[in-house]
Write a structure and sequence with these properties.
single chain, 2 domains, Aminopeptidase, 30% helix, 409 residues, alpha+beta, binds zinc ion, globular, 6-stranded mixed sheet
């Protein structure tokens, strides 16, 4: 009997692989190697002889083809790290079999409740198996459910010669959560024509679109002096920053938008009288919309400048990633195969825009078209995270279907 995806997932979830922001090395944390090393060992146990881990914590492996037909090489990608937002130390997954419906109160912290009213997908899982946290950590289904799905499919493909496929590559990456998952992506070792990240949501939901994304900072320089003698001399950059935040369009925030709507999100502010820095992320599905967002920030600064004539304002905008749709539509077969693979599992597939980025956006723009497949995970980056095990099993089936469909074509 082959080990289930659930058993694999529980083993991986207990290994702390949290990545860290603002580290100039890949991987950003050495502990990510603990899972990656284990994955290489397990891949070798499946009989995959070329399984390899490099110094930047990328795992690569090849499931060798079992047909003489010329079949496109595809790669499945998942990330081993978990979000820096919530601790991944000492994860205690709670497995709920035969979920009966209703809210789920987490045992380690009774204030953390997975509410039916906030989780429309819970109802779809009645009668199924769910994994939650104990309420004190995240679960890491993002993306260990994807890792477990790929590992389960790999084991099956190595053991079942009746499934005909070309060379199938696997790549597990570090640091996706800090936006550096593709920094040292081993394109040469992978050498694939198409790839799929397995890093999505509920079964049926497929992703070919991400935001186009920039980051921005506004730095305001003021002038400090003892408040007792500040009249007509002090320039308080804190007040200027507050005015800027107050002028941002409220209908363009993450809290007030969904689906295809863009946003400007001030996610951090730091400073004092002398200098205040506001950090933003800018998101739009149309890359041209990011230019509009630049203009909005410039206009806000222009007004703030009139209110604070002696303050100095600086705006810096940097590119983060771009919507992958444009690149994927150049090779529509990568989407058609995925759609058919999902249909064959018995789910009703649909395309959902990702209000974020995936490694797929960067890979697609670097020439490797990479849409995204569901994993069954929900409420990522939070203590409310949960996983539909049936959803994860659908991901395994989808992977198996995909390799067959590509070999059939
Ligand atoms: Zn992820």
């Amino acid at each position: 009997m082959q080990e289930t995806a659930l058993v694999k997932f529980l083993r991986y979830a207990k290994i702390d692989t949290q990545s860290k922001e603002d580290v100039n090395e890949t991987p950003s944390t050495q502990k990510q190697f603990n899972l990656s090393r284990l994955l290489v060992d397990e891949l070798k146990q499946f009989g995959i002889t070329d399984a390899e881990l490099d110094e930047h914590c990328y795992v690569t492996a090849t499931i060798p083809k079992n047909t003489d037909k010329k079949v496109s090489i595809i790669c499945f990608v998942a990330h081993v790290d978990t979000s820096p937002e919530v601790t991944d130390t000492d994860v205690k997954p709670q497995v709920i079999e035969n979920y009966l419906g209703g809210d789920i109160v987490l045992p380690g912290d009774n204030s953390i409740i997975i509410k039916e009213s906030e989780n429309r997908n819970l109802r779809k899982c009645i009668g199924g198996t769910i994994v939650t946290t104990d309420g004190t950590t995240l679960l890491g289904a993002d993306n260990k459910a994807g890792v477990a799905a790929i590992m389960t499919a790999a084991e099956r493909l190595m053991n079942d010669s009746s499934i005909i496929h070309g060379d199938v590559k696997i790549c597990f990456t570090p640091d996706e959560e800090v936006g550096k998952g593709t920094e040292y992506f081993p394109f040469e070792r992978i050498n694939a024509e198409y790839a799929y990240t397995v890093d999505g949501d509920m079964p049926g939901e497929l992703n070919k679109e991400t935001f186009s994304a920039n980051s921005a900072t506004i730095t305001i320089h003021g002038r400090d002096i003892h408040p007792g003698m500040a009249k007509d001399i002090m320039v308080n950059s804190v007040r200027a920053a507050a005015d800027i935040i107050a002028m941002l369009p409220k209908h363009m925030s993450p809290e007030t938008t969904d689906k295809y709507q863009p946003y400007i999100h001030p996610l951090g502010i730091e400073g004092g009288v002398m200098k205040t820095t506001i950090r933003f992320i800018l998101r739009d599905f149309e890359t041209s919309g990011l230019e509009t967002q630049r203009e909005i920030l410039q206009n806000v600064i222009a007004v703030a400048q009139t209110l604070h004539p002696r303050a100095k304002f600086e705006l810096v905008i940097k590119e983060s990633y771009r919507n992958m749709r444009e690149k994927l539509e150049e090779k529509p077969e990568v989407l058609e195969w995925l759609w058919e693979a999902a249909v064959r599992t018995g789910t009703d597939p649909y395309w959902e825009p990702i209000r974020g980025g995936t490694d797929g956006s960067k890979l697609s723009w670097k020439g490797l078209p990479t849409p995204n497949i569901y994993t069954g995970g929900q409420n990522f980056h939070s203590r409310n995270e949960w996983l539909s095990v049936d959803g994860m099993n659908k991901a395994v089936e989808t992977i198996i279907n995909l390799v067959q469909i590509i070999a059939e074509k």
